[in-house]
Amino acid sequence: MQHIAPLSRSTTRMVARAGGFDRQSQNPALQAERRIFCGRSAPLTSPHRHAVSIALVRYAKEVVMSVASVVALLIPLAAGAQQPEPHRLVAESFSLTTSNLQTRIWSDLVPALLSGRKHLQAAAPGVNIGLTGLVYATQFNVGGRVYAVSVLNHQCANTGLENSLSCPARIAEISGSTPRLIEEVPNFVVSFQPDATGTKTNAQSRYMTIASFDPATRTLTFIDVSEGQQTALPIRINLQ
Asked: Is the CA virtual torsion 75, 77, 80, 83 positive or negative?
């Protein structure tokens, strides 16, 4: 906090002069005149009071300007404070046969995912199943580090709510070729709304899941959105 500067030397002189505390004039006539009319102490005359008022007004202006300067400095600091950064978890497919971010995050489950897709393909030879997986994912760039949130659509459980599933989720720091696992959530509630073909889509906002990073606490929190209503999920993850 900026300290208010003391009265300037010129202002101090003005107040002292207006109050009759300046050095006596070297003019003998003036000194005699003061002795005749002043006695012990001469009361302030109207011009003196006026001078004091002017000096006080000037000092008050200096104080106001000093306070205004402090406020002007604090406003940009408050405005520049970082706010929580929300990201929607986006449904996206990824190849199970090539190396990519999701296959690296879920490397231990990729063989089971591949086996399941091949089994479906054998059961429906006329349908192109595709060797792909599905995740609900987003990323945060924090101080040069990248953190990924990935919810895998695999062995999910029905929550009993419309367009809602409980699936495994992982939060990892993306560093080099091998992601560093920070947290694993076995039963992560994720909401979505399929389109007419049954494909999960990101082109709507009534059913979705939102991840939010708070830079002040370096934590991730999550919100479930169902029928447009937001509900905080009981998940809080500290990013290391």
From this structure: negative
Helix (H, G, I), strand (E, B) or coil at 162: coil
Cα distance between residue 143 and residue 134, in whole Å = 29
* Both structure tokens of 77: 């600091």
Say what the pLDDT of residue 64 is.
42
* Confidence class for position 216, pLDDT limits 50, 70, 90: very high
Stated pTM of the model: 0.65
State which amino acid sits at residue 76. Answer: P
Angstrom distance (rounded) from CA 208 to CA 232 = 12
For 116-157, the DSSP string reads HHHHHHHH-TTS---SEEEEEEEEEEETTEEEEEEEE-SS-E
Largest CA distance in the chain: 124
| Helices 46-79 and 9-18: angle between axes, nearest 10 degrees | 150
- Strands 90-95, 145-152: pairing is unpaired
d(CA 191, CA 206): 9
If one counts every other C-beta atom within 10 angstroms of the C-beta of residue 106, the result is 22
Kindly list the distances between the CA atom of residue 53 and the CA atoms of 48, 49, 57, 74, 237, in Å, as whole numbers in the listed order. Answer: 9, 6, 6, 32, 62
Mean pLDDT of the chain, nearest integer: 77
Cα–Cα distances (Å) from 219 to 20, 86, 213, 239, in that order, read 66, 12, 6, 6
Statement: residue 158 has pLDDT above 70: yes
